[in-house]
Amino acid sequence: MAIEKILKFIWNEFIYTGHFLSLGAVSIVFTSAILLGIKITWDCLLVVYLGIHSAYLFNRYKELKIDLSTNPERTLYLQKHIKYIPFIISFYALLMTVILVFFNKTSVIIFGLVLFLIGLLYSIFLKECTKKIIGFKNYFVSLMWTLLIIFLAFYYFYPLNLTLILILIFVYLRCFMDTNFYDIKDIESDKKENLLTLAIVFGRKGLLRFLNLINVIALLPIILGVYLELFPMFSLILLFVIPITFYLLKKLEIEKINIAYLSEIAIGTEKISWSFLVLFGKFLL
Questions:
Q1: Percent helix, strand and coil across the chain, each rounded to 5?
Q2: Is the dihedral of CA 27, 59, 186, 17 positive or negative?
Q3: How many Cβ atoms from other residues are within 10 Å of residue 91's Cβ?
Q4: Which of 43, 109, 140, 200 has the most CB atoms within 10 Å of its CB?
Q5: CA dihedral in degrees (34, 181, 190, 145; nearest 10)?
Q6: DSSP assignment letter at 239
Q7: Exposed, middle or buried: residue 48 (CB in 10 Å: 0-12, 13-18, 19+)?
Q8: Distance (Å, rounded) from C-alpha 153 to C-alpha 160?
Q9: Between 42-62 and 85-102, two packed helices, what is the crossing angle to 10 degrees?
Q10: Whole-prediction pTM value?
Q11: pLDDT (tens digit, 9 = 90+) per residue, 131-168?
């Protein structure tokens, strides 16, 4: 029983505090580095992990009361550890800065910290823009995820070229789809806040049809990159995320399904799968 409780604690900590989504961000950067031919190092991946995890943890800390109605399991879990969250966020932010300084990445310190602060500012007041601009939340959060690739380029002095642009488009479209996927569980709470998310504007069924379309379109930059010989041939293995996503979207059509829990697992799993897919493809070829 003791082992079972420990495993349950680790699982809840991993899912509800945002570690799973943070690993998804690491996978995005790792996968992009492989496609761009960048020899990525552990320090870059750790900085990305710390920055994304801090931003997500702050967002969940800030919106704890709002999330109670749509994600009670996560909210109740976080409430048990609420007094530690500000210290954890501060420690992660400090550690992230120390790593950048230690590895003499002065050229990206400002960019990295600005990116981190924008993530925090979104939770404080930028989210309010969605009350006036339809889908602002979706566009903005997707952009924040995509800027991780710009961070990667800065970190390793990678030039701005067509290859990088195609990666940016691919990541933006996939993340845009995921942010909308995640918003389905928040429809009721977002309505109370008068937010004009696409999930509210389109409705659940309309949004799912839209996301199925984006699911296919998002892979076109990869196909184009391979055709133009900008990406290695094994990049096409990423096409397997299409049926994975179709399956997850199909699951959302089930009215009684726990959307909040599915969202926590599904989005992280889909992004983490990118790394395994490209590594498998690279190994085969």
A1: 80, 0, 20
A2: positive
A3: 13
A4: 200
A5: 10
A6: G
A7: buried
A8: 8
A9: 160
A10: 0.85
A11: 788 878 888 888 888 989 999 998 998 998 999 999 99
